[in-house]
Amino acid sequence: MKKPAPTPKTTPGKRPRRSAPVRLLSLSLACLAGLSACAPGGADSADAEPAPIEVPPPVEQTNEGLTIFYTDYNEVEAKILDAAINQFNQQHPDTPVTADKHFADGLYTSHQDAYTKMITEVMAGEGPDLFLYDYMTMDIEKMARRGVFADLEPYFKADHFDWSGYNQAVMDGGVWDGHRLVVPLSYMLPILYSSQTALDETGFSVENCDTFDGFLDEVEKMESDPKQTREAFRSEWAFYYFPYNSGLPYVDYDRQTADLSFPELEQGASIYKNLKPVLVPGFGDGSDMAGAADIRDGKCLFTYPDFSQYGFFLAAGCINKFDDAVMLPIRDTQGGIRARISSAIAVRNSSSNLQVAYEFIKFLLSEEFQLDTIGWRWQHFSVLDAANERYYIENTVERDNSMIAPDNPYGFEGNIVLPQEDYDELVSYMDEVSGVFFYTADTNFLRQIKDYLSGNASYEEAVRAAERQMELYLSE
Prior knowledge:
By secondary structure, the protein is an alpha/beta fold. The protein has helices at about 30-35, 75-90, 110-125, 140-145, 155-160, 170, 195-200, 210-225, 240-245, 265-275, 290-295, 310-320, 355-365, 365-370, 385-395, 420-430, 445-450, 450-455, 460-475; strands spanning about 65-70, 95-100, 130, 175, 180, 180-190, 190-195, 230-235, 250, 255-260, 300, 325-330, 335-345, 380, 435.
C-alpha cells in the first residue's frame, strides 16, 4: 500500500481547548431545562476568560454494588457489556453489577426514549451509576460543563493505572481541565480508501493533502474538472464529517459562541452541496466490497468503509486484489488527525459506588477482557492497541476467518489480502491522532445550514441563522 507523503507531526495527547465536538440528536426539552439551570455566564461572558470546569465533590460512598444503563439497539455493544457484567460478577461477587438494560426491539424511537428518560434522571442526581455514551442522544461537551460526570482521575492515579498500551490522545479526549469525566472505549478514523490506478487517472495528489486545506483544494479541483468520469466519493458519508475533521474551533462551549466565518467551512459546504455520489442517498457506504468494486470499475475515486475495523480489512483487501490500495487520512488544518469517539462510558457524579465503578471500567479496558471478546470488536478501533492487533491477526493472518464471501456479486474471491505493511500504515495513523470529537446535532455545521444546501438560502444567510441557532443552544 502506497503511503502519502509524511506530514508535520502534531503533539499527541493534546486536546484542543476550543475544539468542536458534536452529537447527532438533541436532548429532550426536559433535559435541556435541567442543563440550563446550571448554565454559566450570559451575554457578557463571551469575551471573558472561561472559568475552569469544576466537579462537585463525591457523595458519601458505600460501594455495595453498581447499576449500568444501556440498550440493545447497538447489538454489538450490548453483547460486550452483557459479557463484561457476567464475567465481572463472577470475579467480584461481593460488589455485583446490575444491568439496567432497555430492550428497544430494533426501534430507534424506543432507544431514544429510554436514553432521554435516563439522562433526565442523571441530571436530577438519580438513575444508574454508569451509562454507556450514546452519540444520538447525549451532548457530552455540554454535560461535562454541568457537573454531571464523576471525576475518575483520582482512582486511576491511586491505582497507578498503566496507560502505555492505550491510544493516549484518544483517552485524553475524556479529560476536561484535568478531570477524567468520560472514558473512551472505541473510536473511528477519517480514512478514505482508493487505488493507485484511480489516483493516477484523476491526477488527485495525496501529497497535497498534508493539511485539510490541501485536501479541500484537491477535491474541488477534481469535482470541477469536466473531463473526470469518476465521482470523488462513493457516498456523502465519506465527506459528511469534514467540519469536525478540520479541527476548526467554530464552536466554543466555554464562551457559548459560534464563529462560522472560516473560509474552509464555506469551501467544504460548497463541495458537499455539489456532490453527486455513486450511492444515493449517501448515508453509509453499504458494502465495503461494493466500494472497492466501484473504484475498480471507474465509478468513484474514494470509498469510506462503514466500520473502522472490518471495513478497513475488507475494503483495502479487495482493492489489493486488482491494484495497490491507498489510504488517505483527512487531516486537520494543522496536519493532525481527529478521531471520532464512537463508544465511551461515564459515571454519575452523585453515585455512591465510585470505587466499584472504577473497578468495572478497569475491567472493560483490560487486555484479558478485550481479547476474550475480540470477535465482537469489528465495528470500531479499540482504545487498546493490543486488541486492534489481535483483530488484524485473526482476520487476515489466520486465514480461517479471512475468506471473502464466495457468493458476493462483485467478483472478488479467496482471502482478504492485507500484508503487515498495510496494517503498520494504519497503526501509524492511529499514532498521529491529535484530537477527538463527540458528535452533536445542535452544533453540526451541515445540519444547521440545510437551507443553503437545499438552495433555499444564500450561504451568508444560512450561516447567520446557524450562528444564532448554535449560540442559543449553547446558552441554554
